[in-house]
Write a structure and sequence with these properties.
mainly alpha, single chain, 148 residues
Amino acid sequence: MHPFVVLVDMVRKDYEKLFTHHEPPEPPAGLFERIILAIKREQELRNTKRFAFGFLALLLASLATAPFSWALVAGQIQDSGMLQFIEVALSDFDAFFASWQYFGLAIAESLPVMGITIFTVNMILVVFTLRLFLYKKGLLVGYLLHDV
């Protein structure tokens, strides 16, 4: 027999003997709970980051569209002639009180409903995102600073 084969055979027997009498070490107590806690903490951190970036995107989008929605409302109010009805109502109170139903109906008919709706939805989004940020501020800042 070749001497190399004898050497390999001897080494193999030594390793078999070493691993047959070796017992695996016991894991430390509470290892499973620590692993599960670390996984949950990582999931919470991921969800918080996703929530923070979603909040930031919604806030930036609503703040960026605020001037455009205000310009739309202002332009539609000016084009509708509603300002002239309000000006006449404020300049001649006697005529306004004598026929206030007609003035109210004329103003209501000339309201720019679409522009007011877009502006109102935009302002609700701004207020909602600011309120949500102030409500969740401690949670968001705690998670984001803990990660750094």
